[in-house]
Amino acid sequence: MLIFYTGAIRTGKTTTVSNVCADRSDVSGFVTPDNELGKRVMRFFPSAETIEFETESSDCVEIGRFKFSKTAFERGNELISQFSASQFKFLVIDELGRFELVKRSGFYEAFKNLKLRSGQKAIVIVREELVEQAISEFGGIAVRNREELERAMQ
Prior knowledge:
This is NTPase. It holds the Pfam family NTPase_1. It comes from Hexamita inflata. By secondary structure, the protein is α/β, with parallel strands linked by helices. Helices cover 30% and strands 29% of the residues. It has six helices and nine strands; from the N terminus they run E-H-E-E-E-E-E-H-E-H-H-E-H-E-H. It has a seven-stranded mixed beta sheet, sandwiched between helices. The model has no long low-confidence stretch (mean pLDDT 97).
């Protein structure tokens, strides 16, 4: 089952998903919060390992005014691709944005090919203006607050 956690830009979607999933041992995946310098990092579940996502490196993917680490995209795509063979129940992906849903790049191919086993669910952060497109293309449901997210993760 695909669960699209949605809301407007900069309304705490990443923080909410991070808080709901923080102490769970059945969650794999990644969130992309801002660090103390205001740059996005990629933090993995369940290890809490953090790597640079937003970068100044020349080995990057440019999306608008932002530069993102190619290595981080590779790690995220690998995690998505290998999820169905894992013992985890939930996969967190932060996020499917315009880069994926309009440009068909970033995490798009790995997500498009994602196969969930019985009982597995993917929690995918998507901006409000893109959620209907995501549901139309991939199926799934939209949840819009912490209570709905926690209920969907039972």
